[in-house]
Amino acid sequence: MDDISFTKRERREERKAVQVADRKSAAYQEKVQRVGLWAVVVVLVVGGVWYLSRGGGSSGQPGPVVPTVNQVTADDWTAGSADAPLMLVEYSDFQCPACGNYYTTVKKVTQDFSNQVHFVYRNFPLRTLHPNAEPAAWAAEAAGRQGKFWEMHDLLFERQSQWADNLNTKSTFHGYAVELGLDGNQFDSDYSSSAVRNKVATDVASGTVAKVPGTPTFFLNGQKVSPSPDYASFSTLINDALAAQK
Amino acid sequence: MPLLRKSSLLGYLFGLVALAGFFDATYLAIKHFEGLAPNCSILNGCEVVTTSSYSVIFGVPVALMGSVYYLTVLLLTVAYLDSPKRWKLDSAAVVVCFGLLATVWFVYLQLFVIHALCLYCMFSALTTTTLFLFIFFWWRHYRLLITV
Fold first, then answer.
1. Which residue from B37, B81, B114 is facing A192, i.e. has the nearest CB?
2. B64 burial class (0-12, 13-18, 19+ CB within 10 angstroms)?
3. Which of B33, B47, B50, B54 has the highest number of chain A CBs within 10 A, making it the mutation to test binding with A?
4. What's the CATH number where A130 sits?
5. Same structural domain for residues A99 and A138?
């Protein structure tokens, strides 16, 4: 009698223990599932962003060397003599009104001092302020592929007010290209090409490295200079720099 | 009471769609910050749309907003799958409704103002519409799915 009741209790306890263990393992499994779910989501999100930012499935190419303010690269657009004692680098934005103000002076100065100053133009479109500045830079670069960078550069500054608020600038710029006697189809394909996009992006990166605060920013022989947009300030600056070298 | 399988499956599908939208928007956002045009092989208006003056609102790129939006929906969904609370579903529904409104606006801009279509943007319109249909169904049948 005693024996039987003992066995019964024993059995009951055993059954209970098994139940607790079952419940524990079910809870454990649920926990594993929940942690697993979050882990999968985090891995997918982080991994996906990492893959995309590495240029996965994109037009991204290995970044070219970013030029510095006291160095001219083969990709740079330059005017004046390469052997000139001075080098003037401008970071500019085709849509920025101040850059438009400087344009005439800079053009005259670089022509008058073409033997003394090696002028370099780099794009620094302020995309958030000027939505058309970057497309304008692409247009100038695309024209440059057909040998007319400076012609497009001049046209863009001269007609800044005409295209600055345009919505479909691509067709406007196409019109300019045709006006300059460029091949329109070639211009369109260059305008959209990753080579042109990357060139502008490289210029921007160069300006960022140089800590360009705004546009236009000038560097004379690697030193940041801030002349007024009149001819006299520019020529004084250049004459002083030439005198200092002698 | 744990979720029924049917609701759970729906939740996972919903999360996958949100994830697809997230990758899409993030890709555009990254391209925006790199200053590169996205690869567009089928529709030829990507650079027109993604560089238009409508691609940035108050200095914030639209693509980045989209990226944050999809991530929010995704996280709410996963949180709901983790422990189903009504408020998570409701929040996701509200966010998706705003997403749908934004989508309608952007599709309108592409069709009638910019006159160019961007493949990635249209894909995003598709994912948000899908999310909305899901939410609509999920919401209406919430009781049916949860308590049987």
1. B37
2. middle
3. B47
4. 3.40.30.10
5. yes
- The answer to whether the CB atoms of A38 and B78 lie below 8 A apart is yes
Q: What is the pLDDT of residue A151?
A: 94
- Comparing CB atoms, the residue among B39, B52, B56 nearest residue A167 is B52
| Domain boundaries of chain B, sorted by first residue | 5-143
Residue-wise pLDDT for A30-87, tens only, equals 788 888 888 888 998 888 888 887 765 444 433 455 678 878 888 899 998 888 888 9
Domain count, chain A: 2
Residue of chain B with shortest Cα separation from A130: B53
How far apart, in Å, are the Cα atoms of B134 and each of A30, A172, B21, B142, B148? 26, 43, 14, 11, 20
pLDDT tens-digit readout, B87-143: 888 888 889 999 999 999 888 888 877 777 778 888 899 999 999 988 888 777 765
B48 contacts: CB under 8 Å, gap ≥ 6: A168, A170, B114, B116, B118
Strand, helix or coil for residue A230: coil
Q: Is CATH 3.40.50.1820 the classification given to domain B5-143? A: no
Q: Which residues of B touch A38 (CB under 8 A)?
A: 78, 82
Does the predicted interface ipTM exceed a cut of 0.90?
A: no
One domain for residues A5 and A113: no
Per CB-CB distance under 8 Å, the chain A contacts of B22 are 45, 48
Residue A16 domain boundaries: 1-58
